Amino acid sequence: MLSESARMTTAQEASYRIQYPNSKRRAAKVIALDRTSAKIVDEVSRLPWNGASFFTSLSFSAKGSPGAEGGEALQAWLNDLAGHAMNLVAEVASSDFVVVITAAGEDARAVSIIADACKLHNKSLVGLVVPRDGASEEAVGESLNHLRPYTRMLVVASGVDYVEAMLTALRA
Q1: Would the pTM of this model clear 0.85, i.e. be above it?
Q2: Are 165 and 139 in contact (CB under 8 A)?
Q3: How many whole angstroms separate alpha carbon 107 and alpha carbon 86?
Q4: Measured between alpha carbons, how far is 19 from 28 in angstroms, rounded to an integer?
Q5: Which run of H or E residues covers position 44?
Q6: How far apart are CA 62 and CA 5, in angstroms?
Q7: Which residues have CB under 8 Å from 50's CB, separation 6+?
């Protein structure tokens, strides 16, 4: 009797295998939430990726157009690596998922704007917190607390290599 491993390599079992790649190209959007993480995003973006787009900053403003109750509408833009401004909502809409990166202790409150765009288009939001040299546990905890309510997956990444490994695991 053949072992399970040996049986799976037979020609008969091979006829059941799918003969084409098991997934399509994924459109990931990787967004830095602060200047420290923008350097990480810039470094990681130089590697070969499978459809990922990288953004180094987020800007937003309230526009005086009336909403449902006369409120203001929020407009947000992402700056890509070349400095071009892209519409946040359109970029999220064209993605499969969004990854935000922040350095521990930096202000990560802008994640709420990105999370709103992700919720609008039913996109997953992944958060990576990268501790800076000498960052305290309190700083890491504070950054985690900013991201936790909005992300489906939240990871403390030990450095650029870890960010690269996470994006590879996500098939970015």
Answers
A1: no
A2: no
A3: 22
A4: 26
A5: helix 35-45
A6: 60
A7: 25, 26, 171, 172
CATH of 23-63+72-169, one of 3.30.540.10, 3.30.980.10, 3.30.230.10, 3.40.50.1440: 3.40.50.1440
Angle separating helix axes 160-169 and 35-45, nearest 10 degrees: 60
How sure is the predictor about 20, in pLDDT bands with cuts at 50, 70 and 90? low
29-66 pLDDT per residue, tens: 999 999 999 999 999 999 999 889 999 988 877 665 44
Contact 58, 35 (CB under 8 A): no
Q: CA 105, CA 115: separation in Å to the nearest integer? A: 20
For residue 51, count other CB atoms closer than 10 A to its CB.
Answer: 13
How far, in Å, CA of 99 to CA of 28, rounded?
A: 7
Contact 17, 23 (CB under 8 A): no
Q: What are phi and psi of 55, to 5 degrees?
A: -130, 135
20: tokens are: 């084409």
- Scan for tokens 């519409």, then name that residue: 87
